[in-house]
Structure formats: C-alpha cells, structure tokens
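INFO  loader      accepted 1 record
INFO  loader      residues=381
INFO  predictor   begin
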Amino acid sequence: MKYTLITKDGRAKRAEVQTVHGTVQTPLFMNVGTVAAIKGAVSTDDLKEIRTQVELSNTYHLHVRTGDKLIKEFGGLHKFMNWDRPILTDSGGFQVFSLTGLRKIKEEGVYFNSHIDGRKIFMGPEESMQIQSNLASTIAMAFDECPPHPATREYMQASVDRTTRWLERCRAEMARLNSLPDTINKNQLLFGINQGGTFEDIRIAHAKTISAMDLDGYALGGLAVGESHEEMYRILDETVPYLPENKPTYLMGVGTPANILEAVDRGVDFFDCVYPSRNGRHGHVYTNQGKRNLFNAKYELDARPIEEGCQCPACRSYSRAYIRHLLKAKEMLGMRLCVLHNLYFYNTMMEEIRDAIEEHRYAEYKAQKLAGMTETKNGND
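INFO  predictor   done
INFO  writer      dumping tokens
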C-alpha cells in the first residue's frame, strides 16, 4: 500500500491510497455490504454507477453463513461477488462482542454461539486473520474487543491491554498467511484499532502503542456506541493527533452526514455506516435540505424527484409520489431506489469534501452543508 497525502486544510486530510485492487481517493465512505451484498437489492454494477470506491463486508457473518472456506474455493470475495475494487473486511469483533449472553471472553479469544443456528464457535486473533485471508479482502481489520458503553476505567484498561496483545498476534498471523503459497491475496493489508471508550488518557496511550507498530492503517473503534456526539468529537480531537498522519485514519461505524463532516475536520479519512442503506429501506432519504421520510402523506402527489438536481438512478427517473407508492405497497423497488439514492448522496458528499479540502475552503463548505441540512427539519420542504 502507498498512502500519499495530497494536501491538508486545517486538520482535514486529502489523500490517495494505492492498493493491490486499485487506487482510492480519501476522504471516502465505504458502502456496507455485510454479507457480500448491499441490503436493498443493490448490485456491484450499481455500486460502480454510483461511484463507490470501497465495499465493506463482515468476517463474522460470512464465516457463519456460506463460509469463508467456500468463498476461498471461488477465488476470494472479489470473484465471488464480482467486484474488482478494494474490499475492507471487518474482523467480526464488534459482532461477536454484541452477542452478550452468547459469548465468553478469554485471553485466547472468544467462545460464542452462532446467532443463526446456535452452534458453538471460537474466534481469536489467528482465526479472524485466517477467515479474512480466505476472503482475500484488500484490507483486514485486527481482531479487537469492543468494550461496552459505559464501562469502568478498570474494565476499559484491561480490555485495551488485551486488544493490544491480540493485535500483536494478528500481525504475526497475517505475516505467516501472506507467505503461504495458496494465499489468494499475499498483499493483504492490516489495520489496527484504537480503543479506550471515552477515557482520553487510555485512548492516547493506546494510540501511541499501536502507532509504534507501523501498521498499514489505523481505526478508531468503540465510538457511536451510546456516547453523545460531543463526547465522540472530543475523543477524536484528543486521539487522532497521536495516530500517524501518513497512514489512513478510519472511524468505524460512523455515521450521519454531520458526523462525517465533523470527523473529516478532525483528520479522519475512512468511514463506513449502515445508515444510508438501513434508512433507505425504511423510506428515509438524505438530501442537502435534510432527511425526508417518503412515507409522509405530503409526498402523495409530489411529482418532484427525491432531490431536485440529483443525478442518482432514482432521481433521474422517478417521483417522490411513485417511490412513496412503492414503499406503501411494500414493493422491493421502492427500497432499492431509496438505498441507491442514499449511497449516491454519501458518495457524492465525499467527492465534494475532497474538492473543498483541495481548494482550502473546507470550513466554509462544512458550515454551508450543515446549515442546509436543517431546512427539512424546519419545515422548508
């Protein structure tokens, strides 16, 4: 991997990342396809049309259903889902640790029961790396513990220390896997994850520790899990400066357009979130005037597109009234059009962000974007 920092505007970074599966421009939003598909009947051809740069899939979900070994037989996730651009695989840590009551954390890893059929499964750092190597993603995430919020200082420190030990094991196992003759992607990259909840000193100390390991990239995990937006921004303010500026910085699972705008301003350049697809499937669509609920009766006779001037596949051809009709009739096309619009909105916003940073007008762009997004909330629709 080669990370080239093109320019900065304040702390906002504009960069280019070269990988074995192509070059991407940051800041970027990764479109979430948990089980190797975007929910809402969105194909990989659709993803290219709406200018998606990176697709994100999940280690845990692909391991328990279909299976990573089967996907390896197909030549890896890229061939399996017909996608020739970068893929990031989440380690499964967040999903495993969300199975409260179904899992037991030990130093060697986590014992848990599948949420699908209840079978007993063990996953540790080595197993997570092996699954991700079978999937042959471009970027693999280290296996970490995502601590609950809130957590005591004592629990958080012990959890972060364990995550550091697991990261060392992930790095050693990935080096071993990348040297094997039958490994599909011998250039698989490893991103470490910073944890520490809302304890600034634990976050900073952990950032220093993992930065010294000279990994391919660094993520901030354990945020957007119940803390306020203000707390999240405070942790980013304090922690990001201790992560390498010449490597990708990834804020996991975040978030709303406003969250992204604020995090870019704090030096983050990779994002992912299920919001655009999940909200789209429920008729909630993002626009530059705010979020609209297309189930609202006021759209029943509205002949306008979701957002006037938008060039997404939905807005080019269909009215709010028609899409509302599809949603009310529970036709899948309605969900599909809303998801396509939302992903297009996010991808386009990231393009605008990159342009604004390059032209050193990011503060002005952010202020205008945030101000515009309050219009629908204030009744100006």
